[in-house]
Amino acid sequence: MTTPLVLLNPGPVNVSDAVRAALGNGDLCHREPEFSALLASVAAKLLQAFSAGDTHEAVFVTGSGTAAVEAAVISLVRADRAIAVVDNGVYGARIAAMARAHSIETRVIRSGWSERPPEEEVARVLDDPNVDALALVHHETTTGLLNPVSALARLARERGKLLLLDTVSGLGGEELDLSLVDAAVCTANKCLGGLPGVSFVLSSRAAALRMEEAPTRSLYLDLKGYARGQRSGSPPFTPAIQIFWALEAALDELLRETLSARIARFRAVSEFLRRRFVETGLELYLPPELRSNTITTVRLPRGWTYPELHDALKREGFVIYAGQGKLEREIFRVANMGAVSMSEYQRFANRLASLIG
Ligand SMILES: *Cc1c(COP(=O)(O)O)cnc(C)c1O
User: Fold this and answer.
1) 187: which DSSP letter?
2) How wide is the angle at C-alpha 273 spanned by C-alphas 275 and 330, nearest 5°?
3) Count of Cβ atoms closer than 10 Å to residue 78 Cβ
4) Atom of ligand 1 minimally distant from the CA of 138
5) Shortest-distance atom of ligand 1 to CA 67
6) Rounded distance from Cα 355 to ligand 1 centre (Å)
7) What's the chain's average pLDDT?
8) pLDDT of the residue at 2
9) Of the candidates 103, 129, 86, which has an alpha carbon nearest to the alpha carbon of residue 95?
């Protein structure tokens, strides 16, 4: 194998040797008790890691994070009802696009990419009795912006609406009060440190009931089908079995480290990187109060295009990430959510400083 690359993109992330080795745990048939046991174990460890065993059920989907987000969006809105969607980045916009693709009436609350959503407008949209749920991105990967989950969750709960949270890049990296969330959607291969191919929804009792009332809008992305299958020990379609082994190993590591220590470690790395970027003369895109623990959005240094900077760093073994949409030519992103040591981050900061300094 060639020298491994240090992945500073927001997933898929570098994984530990134990997670990679777990892929070799063995071949299984998903209709046999061995797989039911694996599924139950992964679900239990997930709920344990996020202290959600009393309030939520873990429902797995084989597919990338987008699969579980789309499954949640289309499985939690009743016929002839609407979904309210906060859009302050690419992933919020994608949720609205998913709802529209399935002809679900969509009320979008839009704000700038470096702004918190307007709470009065969210409240006003949620006052409409036809709106069934509020969908929100926890950590907008577009910019690394943290949305105010608790405040918006309160607005939803006061009005009896479900809260659907895309926390694909948040869970395991940020504090989150899951008791406020009816459907928390995440993937194995961002802050959890597993491999790509499995995603999941942590679903509340209210969400489980709502799924039974909502129409079946897709065969493959029908969340209630996965929930029912799982309760009987076997998912409806072939799961990515080896990726479950890897997720179990990643959850063992998270439980050993503890969630609060994981979050603190990511926070310390992002603080280190931001300090070094600023010392190097780089400008950060977001104001400090909106920044997450795991993504730093940096304005491109003068005289560099993104492809030039990307290629120069990749030659040194580091993969940075481009801006999306209107930020494509303005910024680059550095994520710190994988199994990467502090010394690698130091080496990266030094290489970047000497390149552009
Ligand atoms: C990565 C990401 C997704 C999509 O995940 P995929 O695994 O690429 O499908 C969705 N939402 C957010 C906020 C993300 O960061």
Assistant:
1) E
2) 95
3) 14
4) 13
5) 9
6) 30
7) 97
8) 59
9) 86
Low-confidence stretches of the chain (pLDDT beneath 70): 1-3
Per-residue b/e over 323-342, b at no fewer than 16 CB within 10 Å? bbeebeeebbbbbbbbbbee
Query: Which residues face 58 on adjacent strands?
Result: 202
Token pair recorded at residue 223: 């969340």
Give pLDDT, residue 96: 98
Within 10 angstroms of residue 270's Cβ, the number of other Cβ atoms is 23
Terminal Cα-to-Cα distance of the chain (whole angstroms)? 32
- Taking the C-alpha atoms of residue 282 and residue 287, their distance in angstroms, rounded to an integer, is 14
Tokens of 67: 């699969």
Q: Which residues contact 103 (CB under 8 A, 6 or more apart)?
A: none
CB 113 within 8 A of CB 142: yes
Instruction: Look at residue 215 in the predicted model and tell me its pLDDT.
Output: 98
Which of 169, 174, 199 is the pocket-test mutation for ligand 1 (most atoms within 8 Å of CB)? 169
Is residue 173 in contact with ligand 1, taking CB distance under 6 Å?
A: no
Residue with tokens 């600023």: 278
- Please report, for residues 56, 57, 88, 233, 337, the alpha-carbon distance to residue 178 in angstroms, rounded to integers and kept in the order given: 9, 12, 22, 25, 20
